[in-house]
Design brief:
Layout lengths: L1 E3 L2 H16 L6 H4 L5 E5 L4 E4 L8 E5 L13 E5 L5 H4 L2 H15 L8 E5 L8 H11 L34 H13 L3 H9 L16 E3 L10 E6 L9 E9 L2 E10 L3 H15 L3 E6 L1 H16 L5 E6 L6 H15 E4 L6 H11 L11 H11 L17
Parallel strand pairs: 1-4, 1-5, 5-6, 7-13, 8-11, 10-13, 11-12
Antiparallel strand pairs: 2-3, 3-4, 8-9, 9-10
């Protein structure tokens, strides 16, 4: 049983099945499956019978709003393909709730207990059918015995290069996806970029940082001596986290970010990148968040600076005990938006763009997300303005 959001898409899928079965040149169905011929088809109902004509068709195609009463007996494979129609439906919570009602009441009951389920679609929203199904499998202990696998192939890989750049003039190259991303950022709609191209649903009402609120500059710093040059480092020890550190050049109460360190590599490489940034921009102070695990990392990093004869103060600031990292980012978001100035999209290097993508994808309600980049910004802005009563470093000019 194949279910999709519209009758038109169901018709296309039905036509595609017939093409595979009947085209003798491209697919060779008769040669591969000589004992499974097409025995009947119904263009009005989008049904196909293979090998023999049964009470219920071999394949039935329907829209989510189409009638299924007495139409099929799904004991093999239930396919939900693009059940959400697109942007307009995704941005309406009420419509998404109604859509899941159709899925739960009309689609899922048509599958026998032994049937396999295949969910395909653009992840428009965390409450789209795929998202709600994944949440159910992950959170409800009654589904602990259900085997499932989530496959997501984003447009750009971890090196910011296309995953779909194929031979023979098909697919999409890296430049194409970079252009698409720049267009979405220019129009303050990074949520659509993440949903359509990266497989990451981002609720528009839940995004803490948007490109329309963040300040940018063309790469030219003010022609005067900066007040301070500093960095805040959010280190990583595996688990998919990245080392994130913005290079901060401060003039009065404005903080320019000409470069960032953003790396998923091991600590040797991340330390080298940090040292290079410190030396290149004449950084005077680097701050790490203190914990017992981090002490050896910081000590090793200080030794590296001494070996390179790089003069820079390295400090450790104890993490706040009265609030979570998530809450800290939300508390400092207004000052990040007001006082920090980032490179324009067209002049960013790969790791800088990945850093910004991580900032844009931060959601105010998701405690499980990777928040390395926004957390490093929160640490950096706390070095500018006094948020905490203790261990705060204030670089604000005194008049």
């Amino acid at each position: 049983l194949y279910i999709t959001f519209s009758d038109g898409v169901a018709k296309v899928f039905y036509s595609g099945i017939l093409e595979i079965i009947t085209d003798p040149v491209t697919y060779h169905w008769k040669n591969v499956f000589p004992h499974s011929p097409l025995v009947s088809k119904n263009a009005a109902d989008y049904t196909v019978n293979i090998k023999k004509k049964n009470r219920y068709p071999s394949i039935t195609c329907r829209s989510i709003d189409g009638t299924l009463n007495g139409a099929c007996d799904c004991s093999g494979l239930l396919i939900g393909d693009d059940l959400c129609s697109g942007y307009e439906e995704a941005i309406s919570k009420d419509r998404m709730i109604r859509l899941w009602g159709k899925v739960d009441n009309n689609m899922l009951p048509r599958a026998k207990q032994t049937a396999k389920h295949l969910w395909i679609g653009t992840r428009w929203s965390i409450i789209d059918p795929e998202g709600l199904r994944i949440s159910l499998l992950e959170s409800d202990k009654k589904f602990s015995g259900v085997r499932y696998k989530v496959v997501n192939v984003p447009a750009l890989n971890e090196n910011d290069e296309s995953n779909f750049d194929y031979d023979y003039g098909v697919g999409f190259d890296t430049a194409y996806y970079h252009q698409r991303r720049a267009s979405f950022e220019h129009n303050d709609d990074m949520a659509s970029w993440f949903a359509q191209y990266m497989g990451q649903p981002v609720e528009r009402m839940g995004s803490l940082f948007t490109s329309g609120e963040i300040r940018f500059y063309n790469g030219d710093l003010p022609e005067k001596q900066p007040d301070r040059r500093f960095m805040a480092v959010d280190p990583a020890f595996g688990g998919g986290d990245a080392v994130a550190a913005p290079v901060c050049i401060m003039y009065d109460d404005e903080v320019y970010i000409p470069e960032v360190v953003y790396s998923f590599e091991g600590k040797r490489i991340s330390m080298e990148l940090l040292a290079q940034a410190i030396q290149k921009y004449g950084i005077e102070l680097v701050q790490f968040e203190a914990n017992k695990t981090l002490e050896s990392y910081v000590q090793e990093f200080q030794n590296l600076l001494r070996e390179r004869k790089i003069r820079c103060t390295v400090q450790m600031k104890p993490a706040s005990t009265n609030k979570s990292k998530h809450q800290r980012i939300m508390d400092k978001a207004p000052d990040i938006r007001e006082h920090m100035i980032f490179l324009e999209p067209n002049i960013r290097k790969k790791h800088y763009q990945q850093f910004m993508d991580n900032v844009y994808s931060f959601k105010i309600y998701d405690e499980k997300q990777h928040d390395d980049a926004p957390d490093s910004l929160a640490m950096a802005i706390s070095m500018v303005f006094r948020f905490d009563n203790h261990y705060a470093y204030t670089f604000r000019r005194m008049f």
